[in-house]
TrEMBL record:
Superkingdom to which the source organism belongs: Bacteria
Subcellular location field: Membrane
Organism: Aquirufa salirivi
Protein name in the entry: Cytochrome c biogenesis protein CcdA
Transmembrane parts of this sequence: 188-209, 229-251, 263-284, 305-331, 343-363, 383-406, 412-429, 449-470
Family annotation (PANTHER family): THIOL:DISULFIDE INTERCHANGE PROTEIN DSBD
Residues of the Thiol:disulfide interchange protein DsbD N-terminal domain: 39-150
Keywords from the UniProt entry: Cytochrome c-type biogenesis, Membrane, Signal, Transmembrane, Transmembrane helix
Signal peptide feature range: 1-20
Residue ranges occupied by any Cytochrome C biogenesis protein transmembrane domain in the UniProt entry: 189-396
Topological category with respect to the lipid bilayer: Multi-pass membrane protein
Length: 657
């Protein structure tokens, strides 16, 4: 038994650093270019960041109110130089995130670079400051703050990047990442397939489908066979991709954040989608000038390669009244993402659109197997109209959330969607008709099944009016916190004090209507008072996986009940930039840096007490003792049963103490 205990002790001693350790996923270094500038000369501070594989680092050039931690560099008391402009990120990646942030952020993988221009004003100069950034993992779902000091001076001794002693004092701090963003290539692939789906839908509309006989008629008169047919399809793709390239050039990554978060473009997109939707419902047709269309069509009679090009151009123009809204929707969505996204979107859309026409040009006999034109094409168009109108309110919702207008809170948004999809259900079941509908007859089986699916979606939306989280639509709906009426989903039994006023409660809140604290000492005192264990949630405003844990795990009735009834909750935001009163500042024993903000102090507490620097990080403590956590802390884990077991172990341990 003694040997077993000795082996077990040695094992725990060896693995404990692995179970709880500070992560350093990104390492900063800095130089000055040129290294020895003269007085009056301009120079650049060059910050290089080496990022570990599987991690990414948020950049400095997106809206700081979006959510993720924006990289900042703070210069302390400039000596012998002056700043010229702001910090510049060099070629970061860009991504539009609908699910969590509803906006575009920029980031680096593998390596990052930032530059700050300065002008030397004296022989002796000293550049001293702090960098503050956040790295997140695509694999573990953790986010880690990466911050520290830097010094560059005119003396040779102080011009080193950083001394070994300083490195020991300041191991670059980091914080665990949350649900990391999907890799750009994956996101573009998803968007490509969505765009292809839109292209296939466009084929079924009444101003595109009838063009198939025109294509067949044209190519039966041409000499050149399959070669000209393939060229025809290629020209269709090139025309659409050309417009995508134009958009990418004029509205690339630097413009994407403006498009995704500013109220002007979002209201403009809202209006465009409403306009497209009403057009699809049959109120009016969107047509190009007839003179332009006829002029292009006349040139297609020349035959040969030139004729084929103008035939493709004629197809694009004639079908514009139906394809314009769909292609425009793809371009609007693409304009809020990476530089290549509009090109990828138009490539997917045009391929789906061009391939059938190419096949019919090669094999005209296929036309005999097509279903006849009829009222079903107008029905497809009407369905698209309802969908366009529903999507329009997503753009209005983005502007409403960013600027806190509270015009489209969650229940209002849901009521509008229920009304839109309810009307679509009635239309599909034949209970209402629109101007261009033909005589109603018996419902087809596909239409009946589709109508039933839309009705099921409406039924799914209705509980959301009473506070249901509707997890499947979390990225599309306004946050649950914007809803005035939440039914009983937010009721809690733990009340922090008789007045309900808690420290920092005026600007911080817990999710799901939970009541708790945002200061450790205050929460600990209350937990002792009510005789309950303490649930510490090390979290962050920019922590994606924190939000996913709250939305997918905490919201589960089994978890929510335990948090409400068996624990006192304290949420410690490790990235909050609120500067505390000067009498609360202190110098950390971990890195020797002065901690002035609420987030820095919470992070320092997490590192010094629990030897961890990543979020989300959940700790269960017995508030009556100053010992170790009652059970091993956990990080991101979307398995509800695992989290329930974690909470139950903590309660059992608390009762045993």
């Amino acid at each position: 038994m003694k040997y077993k205990l000795l082996i077990l002790s040695l094992f725990l001693f060896l693995v404990s650093p692995v179970l709880a350790q500070k992560l350093v996923p990104a390492k900063w270094s800095w130089t000055l270019e040129p290294a020895k500038p003269s007085v009056g000369q301009e120079a650049e501070i060059v910050f290089q960041v080496k990022i570990e594989k599987g991690w990414y680092l948020y950049s400095s050039d997106f809206d700081k109110d979006l959510g993720p931690v924006v990289t900042t560099v703070t210069i302390k008391n400039p000596v012998g130089f002056e700043l010229l402009g702001g910090l510049k990120a060099i070629n970061p990646h860009s991504k539009f995130d609908k699910e969590i942030w509803n906006g575009t952020y920029t980031y680096f993988t593998e390596k990052g670079e930032f530059r700050q221009k300065i002008k030397i004003t004296a022989e002796n100069w000293k550049i001293e400051g702090l960098y503050d950034s956040q790295a997140c993992s695509n694999e573990s779902g953790l986010c880690v703050p990466v911050k520290g000091p830097f010094v560059i001076a005119s003396s040779a001794a102080a011009s080193d990047v950083i001394t070994d002693e300083a490195k020991k004092k300041n191991p670059e701090l980091s914080i665990e990442a949350t649900a990391s963003p999907v890799a750009p290539s994956e996101s573009l692939w998803q968007f490509f397939w969505i765009a292809m789906g839109a292209g296939l839908l466009a084929l079924l509309t009444p101003c595109v489908y009838p063009l198939i006989p025109m294509t067949v008629s044209f190519f039966t008169k041409q000499k050149g066979g399959k070669g000209l047919a393939f060229l025809y399809g290629s020209f269709i793709v090139l025309i659409y991709v050309f417009f995508g390239t134009l958009l990418a050039f004029f509205a690339g990554a630097s413009f994407a954040n403006f498009l995704s978060t500013h109220w002007i473009p979002n209201l403009l997109f809202f209006g465009i989608f409403i306009f497209f939707g009403i057009s699809f419902l049959g109120a009016f047709e969107i047509v190009l000038p007839s003179g332009m269309v006829n002029s292009v069509d006349a040139k297609s009679d020349k035959g040969g390669i030139i004729g084929v090009f103008f035939m493709a151009f004629t197809l694009v123009l004639v079908s514009f009244s139906c394809t314009g809204p769909l292609a425009g929707s793809i371009l609007i969505a693409a304009s809020q993402g990476a530089f290549v996204k509009p090109i990828i979107g138009m490539l997917g859309f045009s391929l789906a659109f061009a391939i059938p026409f190419t096949l019919f040009a090669i094999f005209p006999g296929f036309m005999q197997k097509l279903p006849k034109s009829g009222n079903w094409m107008n029905e497809v168009k009407v369905v698209l109209g309802f969908l366009e109108i529903a999507l329009a309110f997503k753009f209005l919702s983005v502007a409403d959330q960013v600027y806190h207008w509270h015009l489209l809170d969650r229940e209002i948004f849901l009521a509008i969607w229920i009304a839109i999809f309810g009307a679509l259900t009635l239309y599909l079941f034949g209970k209402i008709s629109l101007p261009h509908d033909g005589p109603s007859g018996k419902l087809s089986i596909p239409r009946t099944l589709f109508a039933t699916a839309i009705l099921a979606f409406v039924v799914y939306l209705i509980p959301g009016m009473f506070g249901a989280p509707l997890k499947g639509l979390s990225g599309w709906l306004p946050p649950l916190s914007s809803q005035d009426f939440k039914g009983n989903s937010g009721e809690v039994t733990v009340k922090p004090g008789s007045t309900g006023v808690v420290k920092y409660g005026d600007f911080l809140e817990l999710p799901l209507g939970l009541t708790g604290f945002f200061d450790y000492q205050e929460a600990k005192a209350y937990a002792v008072q009510v005789g309950k264990p303490l649930f510490i949630d090390f979290t962050g405003h920019g922590c994606v996986n924190c939000r996913k844990m709250e939305e997918y795990v905490w919201s589960d009735p089994k978890v929510l009940k335990r948090l409400q009834e068996e624990y006192v909750i304290v949420a410690l935001y490790c990235d909050d930039k609120t500067e505390l009163p000067s009498d609360q500042w202190y110098v950390s024993k971990v890195d020797g840096q002065e901690k002035k903000t609420l987030g820095d102090q919470n992070l320092d507490f997490q590192i010094s007490r629990f030897n961890s620097n990543a979020q989300p990080h959940y700790v269960l403590l017995d508030p009556r003792k100053e010992g170790e956590p009652m059970v091993t802390p956990v990080a991101f884990d979307a398995n509800v049963d695992h989290f329930v077991e974690f909470l139950d172990k903590g309660v059992r341990q608390y009762k045993m103490n």
